[in-house]
Amino acid sequence: MDLTLLMNAVIAGLLLGAFYAAVTAGISISFGMLDVVNIAHPGFIILGSYIAYIVNTHYGIDPIVVSILALPVFYLLGAAIYQLFYVSFEKRGQDSLRGLAFFFGLLFVTEVILVLVFGVDYRSVDASYIGSSLRLGIVELPLRLLVPAIVAVIMFVGLEIFLGRSFTGRAVMAVSQDPMALRLMAVDPTRIKRIAFGISIATASLAGAFLIIIQPVIPSVGRDYIGRIFAICVLGGLGSMPGTMIAALLLGVIESVTATFYGPSWAPAVSFGILLLTLAVRPSGLLGR
Amino acid sequence: MRAPLFILIQLVIATAIYLGLRFFGNDYLFFAGYTVLQFIVLATAWNILGGYCGYVNFGSAGFFAIGAYTSVFLFTVGQSPEAVFPASILPAMQAIFPLPVPLIIAIAGVMSGLVGLGTGYLTLRLRGVFFAIATLALAIVLQTLVVNWSFVGGSRGAYVIPANTVPVFGPYIQYLFVLMLLLTIIALTCARMIERSSLGVGFATIRDDELAAEACGVPTLKLKLIATVLSGALMGMAGAPFPFYIGYTEPGSVFDLGYAVNSIAMPMIGGTTSWVGPLIGAVLLGTLQQVATVTISSAVNLLLVGLLLIGFVIVAPNGIVGLWQSWFRKGAKP
Predict the structure, then answer these.
(1) Burial label, B68 (beta-carbon count in 10 A; 0-12, 13-18, 19+)
(2) How far is CA A147 from CA A15, A154, A212, in A?
(3) Which residues of A touch B310 (CB under 8 A)?
(4) Residues 6+ positions from A88 with CB-CB distance below 8 Å
(5) Who is most buried in A156, A231, A253, B177, counting CB within 10 A?
(6) Could you read off the pLDDT of B194-232 as tens digits, one per residue?
(7) So where are chain B's domains?
(8) Which chain B residue lies closest to A105 (C-alpha atoms)?
(9) What ipTM did this prediction achieve?
(10) Which tens digit of pLDDT belongs to each residue from B59-90?
């Protein structure tokens, strides 16, 4: 095994892993903390990619800046979707089967609408750092991976501080475990869930921009991320943010090494293997409670 | 109504449909009808696990594809047995291959049933949502495997060209249509028998309150596995004739997300609590899509299915059957 190749594969995997962490952050909140199985999350990520793409090609604004500007829009979208979900399913107490079907329908509709509007051509963005790379000794750091990774880590740390330190953040962590206790503290659990779901969808805006910086995007690419996202989320331990980060880095490295030594067409199978192994051996994940 | 009578009625209806379509003498009707029947089988199969047990399977396309690729594999082997088998057993294999389509369908059912068993055994002991996620990922991984497996064509796809005509039935599509008709009868009979047996009662307890069922001594894991295997096997059987129907099989068309969406949407729209629901949903949506594909476009008809699915789960959680029942009950009141 070539050492330089291995080193580069591991470094690229770590950068990829940081990006995966950003992609999974939203699911960690909605699935891990709120018990809302939002399988439509990849759809919102692709939506974020296309918004970054439109603004970038028309006005030349950096995709990451675009996605930050779009955060409030995604937040409101998320809050609205949660409200609909709450009224239609959670309140009626039949959220499991039909709720899943609802989100599956959302994922599908998003994809089909994007296909109808943009077609199935690959779309990509322009930014000054795409294409160049940093050299450290034998290791090559492509900036199209490095920049999203750095912003992803910043976003992740910000989320972690918000969830761990602020009152609202702590309420989010508590809401699915004990909504009664929240009520006793004069906090409306539904409002907290709405806020949290809004935040989880808002992360999709950033993750979408990262995605289209890293690779060209077509509407169906979101599907490839479903297995990955849930594998990371389960492996990390549901709702544990540090666990999510560790699992994402792990998966990134394993995938990158697999792709380097066995060919990229095998990479999607890695995440599923990890998911099944985790479910069979340790369903509570690495850092699960 | 007893089961033999039910089967007899179905056979009569099926014969009437077949003869009716033959009377028109237009092969397109058989092509369109085949698709609708295929969706009836898929929707009924999905409903055995989804509607009766309350476990969502997003991997219908995966199970369908296992069936389709079992066909492709057996057909390819049948084309040139000498390239696959060692000389010692070659004469025997040459006598067996090529396999008749009904046998291929049965083998495909066994294969996808086994995959269902494996996936179910690993994930069904946990909360239901894990099973749903695993099935979602299963389809993607199976696609990866098929794309990397050159014997069945890999990402290029494979040609499965059967004979033009079959004795008795005439054109090949009519033969496939009759096979699908029989499969539909098998699926509907299966679903109806489950509903009326103690198995169905067991499934319903899982759907309503799994914890309570477990506490009362219902063998929930065993029942869930039975449902998964049955459902998976029927989906695989629905997929097995597909390569013969389409002629050219490639991963993109077999693993189409449309199958997963349709096999969820049809029972949800029709109603998940009885065998009638998926049948109604599949006939309505299947026919609608055939019409929309011809008159508008296939992307728009998929959008239609997605929107209908979202609309129905929000507005009419019990589907058309539920709407009918509540309307009927209100009407019966003085």
Answers:
(1) buried
(2) 9, 11, 12
(3) 102, 105-106, 109
(4) A98, A102, B313, B314
(5) A231
(6) 988 999 999 999 888 888 888 888 898 999 999 999 999
(7) 3-258
(8) B306
(9) 0.84
(10) 899 999 999 999 999 988 888 777 777 777 77
Tokens of B246: 């389409």
Quick one: which H or E segment has residue A202?
helix A189-214
Task: Say if residues A64 and A53 touch (Cβ distance below 8 Å).
Answer: no
Q: How many whole angstroms separate alpha carbon A24 and alpha carbon A156?
A: 10
User: What confidence tens digit (pLDDT) does each residue in A114-154 have?
Assistant: 998 988 889 888 888 887 888 887 888 888 889 999 999 99
Nearby residues of B125 by Cβ (< 8 Å), 6 or more positions away = B221
A10 belongs to a structural domain: yes
pLDDT tens-digit profile of A37-86? 888 999 999 999 999 999 999 998 899 999 999 999 999 999 999 999 98
Say which CATH number the domain at A255 has.
1.10.3470
- Tens-digit pLDDT profile for residues B234-272: 999 999 999 999 888 888 888 888 888 899 999 999 988
In total, how many domains does chain A have? 1
Provide, as residue numbers in chain A, all residues whose Cβ is less than 8 Å from the Cβ of B314: 84, 88, 102
Nearest CB to B128: which of A94, A96, A268?
A96
**Contact residues on chain A for B317, CB-CB shorter than 8 A:** 92, 94, 98
Where are the extended beta strands (E) located within B167-216?
A: 170-171
- What is the extent of the structural domain holding A153? 3-281
Distance from CA of B122 to the nearest CA of A (A): 6
Task: Indicate yes or no: CB of A276 within 8 angstroms of CB of B133.
Answer: no
Interface test with B, best of A82, A85, A95, A108 (most B CBs within 10 A): A108
Predicted local distance difference test score (pLDDT) of residue B38: 94
Q: Which residue of B has its CA nearest to A112?
A: B303
Q: What is the pTM of this model?
A: 0.87
Asked if residue A255 lies in contact with residue A16, where contact means CB atoms within 8 angstroms, the answer is yes
CA–CA distance, B101 with A231 (Å, rounded to integer)? 38
Total CB pairs under 8 A between chain A and B: 118
Question: Which residues from chain A sit within 8 angstroms of residue B309, using beta carbons?
Answer: 101, 104-105, 108
The CATH-assigned architecture of domain B3-258 is Orthogonal Bundle (1.10)
Residue with tokens 């090949």: B172
pLDDT tens digits, residue range A185-241? 888 888 999 999 999 999 999 999 999 999 999 988 887 788 888 889 888 888 788
Measured CB to CB, residues of chain B less than 8 Å from chain A are 50, 54, 56, 58, 122-123, 126, 128-130, 132-134, 136-138, 140-141, 143-145, 147-148, 257, 260-261, 264-265, 268, 272, 299-300, 302-303, 305-307, 309-310, 313-314, 317
Note whether residue A289 is domain-resident: no
Whether residue A274 is contained in a domain is answered as yes
The helix/strand/coil state of A119 is coil
Cross-chain residue pair A276–B306, CB shorter than 8 Å: no
- Does residue A288 sit within a domain? no
